[in-house]
Protein: von Willebrand factor A domain containing 5A
Organism: Anolis carolinensis
Amino acid sequence: MDTEMLPRRKYPDKVPLRSISVDVVIQDFVADVVSELQYKNEDTVPLEVVFDMRLDKDVAVYAFEGIMDGTQIEAQIMEKWQVVEKVKENWGKDASLFKWDPKDRDIFGCILGSLPPGGEATLKLCYTQPLAPASDGSIRFVLPVVPNPCNVPQGPEDENPMQITPEIPEEQLLSPLSLSAALGSYYAISHVKSNYTLAGFQYTTEDRTTAQVCLAEGHYFEKEVELLIYYKEEFCKPVALVELGKPGNVPGSLMGDPVLLLSLYPRISTPKPGLNSTGEFLFLLDCSNDMSYSTETNPDSQSRIQSAKEMVIFLLKSLPLGSYFNIYAFGCNYYSFYPKSVKYTQWTMLGSLRRVMGLKANLGDAEILQPLKAIYSQPYIEGYARQLFLFTHRETSDMNEVIAEVETHSSSHRCFTFGIGEWPATHTLNSMAEAGHGCAEFIKDTEKMPSKALQSMKKALDPVMMDISLQWDLPPGLEAWLVQPIPQVIYTGECSLICAQICGQQQDVNLSEGSVVVQHSMQGWTFTERITFSLQVQDNERFPLHRLAARAFLQELKGTRSVEEMQLAVETSLSSGVACSQTAYIVVNTEPGKLSQIHIYFQNLFGFWGPYDLRAYDDIIELIEYKTKVESTGVIFSTNSCQWHHHRSLCRNTCIFKKIHEISEFLRKAYYSAVIVLASSDLSWKSYSSTEDFLHAYSVIFDQPDPPTKESLVLRLICLQNADGSWPLEACLLNILGLDEETFEKMPNQVAPMAWATVLVILWLHIHAAEESDTSQLLQAKALGWLHENAGLQLAVCVQAGNTFLGCDINLDVFGL
């Protein structure tokens, strides 16, 4: 149910942030933050104040309170229908309202009401968030920059303030900042780094598992605060934290029972030799008409579809033997190369390459949601981590549904996205990659295209934790109920937090410990760990584990149609303070108990069409319809026409104007190309007067395969590489390497031709293509793996003979010898 609750104003300025004080408690991978911000209206007129703050999608806000010019205010969470009724009762009929969308939660904010001249406001925001590990093994905490609240002089104008994204001038960000952090961990803490100067770091226990740190005095809040927490040893085993239930809540409820948080953090520095990281690799390739345009602004550069096809070829060649794969082409509809994923062999690789090379950008508009649903509906192949690679350009109208679909299946796959060409779908691709634990790459320079693709593949080939199972050993009378399902796969370098509610009544109070056995597989090996935890822990007034558990539980219930589950979601939301789609915050004046004219909302920071773009969108549709008429009637479309200037004046957005110009140029070229075809035909002009005839002439030009581009020698070598990583000793390979029949004569005795050819290719790459090592690194590693398995003791002899034959001196270390 959409609710409209917020008043609209126009053209906000900034209320100066006078100071900010932050108190952080960090326990392993969980942080609880209390931020206190002070503001003052230094203007000469009353101001209506709007506060907003960008938050990570995993943050659980659970409290917001403050003092507005001496009046105590507090956020209270209610069912949404109650909020609507209270707003209607207390606000005048002429009050305009703001729409709140529970799906968009990138910004937390509230309209605080009127602040008189000289008036001061103190705001306190409390939230809990999971922490991500950094690439160097530390745990990373980030405090985002808090924008100054927007304010406007009270007046008759009526607009939505959140249609304007506040920019923060540097001179208004110089606010005093103080931050203190209490650190705790299962492991001994080594040290802390920050982008601000630290002071007062000290251990608070002898075993160094707890510490206190704060920022040095004199800092101003001009950039985000980053803390990197390092430990004496790596997180190499699961960690369990227990938190007692919140007093006053019903036993048996999530907030009333103890909660356990289990941290699983797979981190492996050196993969075990001889074991391949096989998986299921799915390639989703945009073949819409939009992909026929050039990758760069230069119309003579390579087309987007050709760039995407080359990346798929690189990735397909780099797959390990024994993996599964499938390729999907999509536009307004979609199809797959195979009904289900097939084993990666020489035969399936060659057949797929031929089909990839034949793909054309002719499938209409790009619609990603349906092929995504088809992919996720395929059964999961046990023991093979699913990796999705998406290649596209355009933004989609249903981007929220697309992102939600990826997030729904985030525990069973990883998503890598590639935006190709100018003005790609930045928000959608970034959000999909973030939701799918992958990364997003944007391809504008064709020279960097292969290396970017293979960087993602290297990450996809990292060892993963799979086949995860938990066995609980708790005192009699207690049992563990998982708040969310166990993830099917956890990727190296990522931390997965699993929440469990400890239910029941303990029969023997003398038993104070429990344990959980975690079993999983990685790189073909099975690991078993027993983690013991205490059930008698100290009270925590903030209850951060319960907040995270509540958020995870509410995420699981999101979209449910069950009346019982919806009621359970409401009860959990009201008791935990974490909002869901059925609840909302409303701020009340706590002194007289009356409603204050304040409301809290969540809003997404990004919209594909901004407030002004919406007006331009209709103009674009009108323009495209106009150009369609031009094409069908055969009237030459001139960029000097009056109608073009009319539509140009309507489109104030520069990017949109460039896009329209690109489309118009495409249609102009299409028309002239059609004229050339007609002029060169044997039939008379009169027989080609209909729209269908012009469309036919268009297809003669544009439905042909892309003209062959000048492939790099590395790409040509990769195309010849076998699925197992070897190269065949044949004429086309010798031609690329610049060799002749003498190559056969120089082959050492008792060395197979493919081993000789593979050694020569690796040597040639180190001599002539060292600058393209990023491109060929994975493929060389694949080739070296094949050589070690098949060349055996002859490999060193073969390398020495190759060095002599090619006149080079490549070290044996390159071949792992």
